[in-house]
């Protein structure tokens, strides 16, 4: 009888222990998810509260992977609210934790590198940002054969940094690679593809390659001129930029037509972009005077 009781007690313990662990996981997940939802809704105070509670649960339960995810989210929140030095500390801690949990070549480690790189860029620490972006690109290039949209996103971030630094050839090279990936990995009308093609066109203009830039702008216009939301925004931007290119080449009538089409999109489709609409009206007036 005693042996039966011992077996029963052992079984009871083995069943109950995973439940305690699962309860901690579930509580962390609930708090972290609430934080993400509050962030999406613009309730940043509540988001920070939920993230801090999730961190406490993760710390008490020694949930190191989960802690790294919440640190990452909290760091992005701090960045969004302009608390850049706090964000730097939190995102650095997230990266160090992911190094220890996942290793140096894991995609989650690359995600933290990419996020910290964006913060370093915002702080003007371009050398550190370049190193972090480049490491993220290197890791993502090995993940799933290197044809993923997350790799394209990291390439776009690195290209934007290069553009800001005036390294236009490097920017163009990375944007070209990102577009090739997006063309395969995303649907033809995806906003990320349109945005990247738009950026590549702008870089081409700065490089003095206006003919190639026009082809890129027209591709974005075709993608978004009949759409709404982000695609319409990208099309309106492309129309405005192409009009500016035409104006530089003294094609004033064509520039005027393009500005008018951009105004129509800003006013009737995109909406809520009064500054962009005002700028385009001003650009149109400059062509007609």
Automatic annotation (TrEMBL):
Major location (coarse): cytoplasm
Q: How is this protein annotated for GO cellular component?
A: cytoplasm; kinesin complex; microtubule
User: By its UniProt entry, which SUPFAM superfamilies does this protein fall under?
Assistant: TPR-like
Its subcellular locations are: Cytoplasm, Cytoskeleton
Give the Gene Ontology MF terms in alphabetical order: kinesin binding
- Report the record's Gene Ontology biological process terms: microtubule-based movement
Q: Which InterPro entries match?
A: Kinesin_light, TPR-like_helical_dom_sf, TPR_rpt
Q: Which UniProt keywords apply?
A: Coiled coil, Cytoplasm, Cytoskeleton, Microtubule, Motor protein, Repeat, TPR repeat
Q: Which family does the entry's similarity section mention?
A: Belongs to the kinesin light chain family.
Annotated protein name in UniProt: Uncharacterized protein
Q: Which organism is it from?
A: marine metagenome
């Amino acid at each position: 009888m005693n042996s039966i009781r011992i077996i029963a007690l052992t079984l009871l313990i083995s069943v109950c222990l995973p439940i305690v662990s699962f309860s901690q996981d579930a509580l962390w997940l609930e708090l972290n998810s609430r934080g993400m939802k509050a962030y999406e809704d613009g309730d940043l105070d509540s988001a920070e509260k939920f993230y801090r509670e999730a961190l406490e649960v993760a710390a008490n339960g020694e949930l190191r992977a989960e802690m790294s995810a919440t640190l990452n989210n909290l760091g992005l929140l701090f960045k969004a609210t302009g608390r850049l030095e706090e964000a730097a500390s939190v995102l650095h801690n997230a990266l160090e934790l992911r190094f220890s949990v996942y290793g140096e070549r894991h995609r989650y480690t690359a995600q933290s590198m990419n996020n910290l790189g964006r913060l370093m860029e915002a702080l003007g620490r371009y050398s550190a940002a370049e190193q972090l972006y480049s490491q993220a690109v290197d890791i993502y290039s090995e993940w799933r054969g290197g044809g993923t949209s997350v790799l394209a996103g990291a390439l776009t971030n690195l290209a934007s940094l290069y553009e800001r630094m005036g390294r236009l050839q490097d920017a163009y090279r990375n944007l070209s690679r990102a577009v090739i990936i997006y063309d395969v990995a995303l649907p033809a009308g995806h906003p990320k593809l349109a945005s990247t093609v738009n950026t590549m066109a702008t870089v081409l203009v700065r490089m003095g390659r206006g003919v190639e830039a026009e082809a890129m702008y027209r591709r974005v216009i075709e993608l978004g001129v009949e759409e709404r939301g982000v695609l319409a925004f990208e099309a309106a931007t492309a129309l405005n930029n192409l009009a500016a290119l035409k104006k530089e080449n003294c094609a004033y009538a064509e520039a005027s037509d393009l500005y008018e089409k951009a105004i129509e999109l800003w006013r009737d489709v995109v909406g809520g972009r009064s500054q962009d609409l005002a700028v385009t009206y001003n650009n149109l007036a400059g062509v007609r005077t």
